[in-house]
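ping. complex inputs:
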Amino acid sequence: MTTATASHDDHHHGPEKGLMRWVKTTNHKDIGSLYMWFAFIMLLIGGALAMGIRAELLAPGMQLMEPQFFNSLTTMHGLIMVFGAIMPAFVGLGNWLIPMMVGAPDMALPRMNNWSFWILPFAGGILLSTFFMEGGAPAFGWTFYAPLSTTFAPDSTDFFIFAVHLLGFSSIMGAINIIATVLNMRAPEMKLMDMPLFVWTWLITSFLLIGAMPVLAGAVTMMLTDRNFGTAFFDATGGGDPVMFQHIFWFFGHPEVYIMILPAFGVVSHIIPTFARKPLFGYSSMVYATASIAFLSYIVWAHHMFLTGMPVAGELYFMYATMLIAVPTGVKVFNWISTMWRGSMTFEAPMLWAVSFVFLFTIGGFSGLMLGIAPADIQYHDTYFVVAHFHYVLVTGALWSIIAATFYWLPKWTGKMYNEGLAKVHFWWAIISVNVLFFPQHFLGLAGMPRRIPDYSLQFADFNYISSIGGFAFGASFILLTYIIIDCVRNGKPAEARPWPSAKGLEWTLEPKAQYHSFNTPPSRKLIEQESQNS
Amino acid sequence: MSEQEYYVPHGTYWPIIGSIGVSTLFVGFANQMHGVEWGASVMALGLAITVFMMFGWFGQVVNESTNGMYNKQVDRSFRWGMSWFIFSEVMFFAAFFGALFYARALSVPWLGGADNNIFTPDLWNAFSASWHQMAFLAPGTELQSGTTMSFPAVPEGLTIENATPADVVDPWGLPALNTALLLASGVTLTYAHHALRAGHRNQIIGWLVATIALGVAFLGFQIMEYSHAYADGLKMTTGIYGSTFYMLTGFHGFHVTVGAIMLTVILYRVQKGHFDADNHFGFEGVAWYWHFVDVVWLGLFVFVYWL
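pong. complex structure:
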């Protein structure tokens, strides 16, 4: 019983030497970096698949690939971006920032934190390996509706199911850790309503993860037994129902879309006040709006299923409940705009990304409202309008906020400044190309072009051509982003402790490059009040 | 360790070992299902690695705890962690209960022609909708999934309107006995907790042994119950009632097994003197888990066996 005393921690050691540091680490900053790099690599892989999709759609007719492979590309692109890029990137940001923002030395359960990350490369590996299996990768769309995913799917689907199980373990453990950190490791002098909004939004997101991910695990488990053990959950010949799959999937899937956007709201609520040089407008309404959105996200799932068959009363209920989400979301958008109102604004890279987030995410929100109107959705359902909608909220929403956060906090992570001129060039390159890429897809969808189809009729040719050109340009912009980040890490000029003079938050009180162990003693009440967003 | 300090552990190999173990287990399982020869052995290897990881990881935590390296704050983190883990389990079971309710209230009646469903008579000529799904199709009909169903005869006049699960499995036989056993085990566990707080080690051991015995008895009766149901023709492959029946009770039985193993570990730790009246979260966490498993059973008894 005495052996364990050897592992007693003295708090003051630095990182271990060598590669094993990254495997063994229990440090929230190390794990945050691992998450961010993993997410970035997956973003590039998912992006490469998207380039394949846009290359096939460059012109009508079959161009490069078999239809089955095209379907694999759309499926794997969606899965990799959702589960491999966006979610891990937000968990990475949460890991890096939450302990510093609440004045804690680390996450509450550091060893479990390591496991949350180190499951991901294995899950990602299993998922990607399906490309090389007989019968090809899953090709049923990222929503894996039964019976496409049960009766008619390739053998590799079982590997996909286990990959989803592993990703679910990782997310649930990450969420539990964040709840325990925020509620238990927060500086004793910090009240809940002192917490920065990124912490608030992540806390609420964690409850969504713990409520939704196990339901996804249940759905894929039912798929597994339907496929291999003869159960009849989604098989009408045995009394089950393929539509039931959609209900269970979207009970997970709708909270999932808020899992990918609530932390983005948090990020933007930090950046806009900093560069408008004004306090955040309506701090407490932001908190309550976030909680309302999270609650509503659990009771609107069937608006994804207006065309799969539902009693009219059900359609009406899900339509009105969906419309209701526009209220708290509107509160947030107006708060951001009011924060900027008469501010002395400057447009450094993080602000450019944050302001364009507000504008473009709102476009995505409005097209979401259009899709939420049950009778109108009969026209829009499963068209490119839907593709345009969710890429506006996920690319120019979630991904935009991740890039904004990266530029905003990169000085604190590396102790160095990125190249502002190049970052601005990259921003304008990305924002022009992304709109060339996705905006024409609205028109394609309204004109009736279906999604997930490798070929299309001639009247869609022009807009698809434009969209593909935008896609290639947008894809290429990530080469420049990679260069800017590596250049910052290697050659960046030393940053100040508070590189953005009007930024608030405990993280800026640390050294320019946040020390390996920060806040070994909790910050004082005075410091917390000085750095609070709620003032 | 003082109350003002934070505890941040050193680096650890256990998580990466766990990832290797669980991935090996899953890859082996998938291959085994696809009829690959080495599937089962790889699966066993993965399970062994995972169990090794759990021994090592939990052992390290137990050592650190008994060496007094944890303070109240660490204790609270464990409490938050365990409670939200249990909530995630609740949501996992909720998915299967949701499937049960959906099939019972919607899909089976619809297949039987409810709600002006004009298609059913044409599509399903010889169809009679009865809950528990043992009478849908003629014996030997092939399912979409390729499985062949064989149904026992359905009692005369049994339909979705009047059938209950009681027509398949009598809830007031073994299931009622099992309910009593699990509820009793919740009581004995609470007595063990009171004894622990009072510091009476022999009483703790007695009540814990009783709890484990009740859990094992439950599992034994559950196996008997399965063999009866199976002999009566209720299988996973006989439609949606069999699917929900075996998946819900199966996952529950798995959780009872895990709970009984955890209680046995706690029994061992009580004998080793790891706990005192104020500091015994290991015991409490397992007790919470056991009560959760109890509550799930009550849901099963009411909705799977009785109503």
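Helices of chain B lie at 14-33, 39-66, 72-111, 120-123, 174-198, 201-231, 240-272, 281-306.
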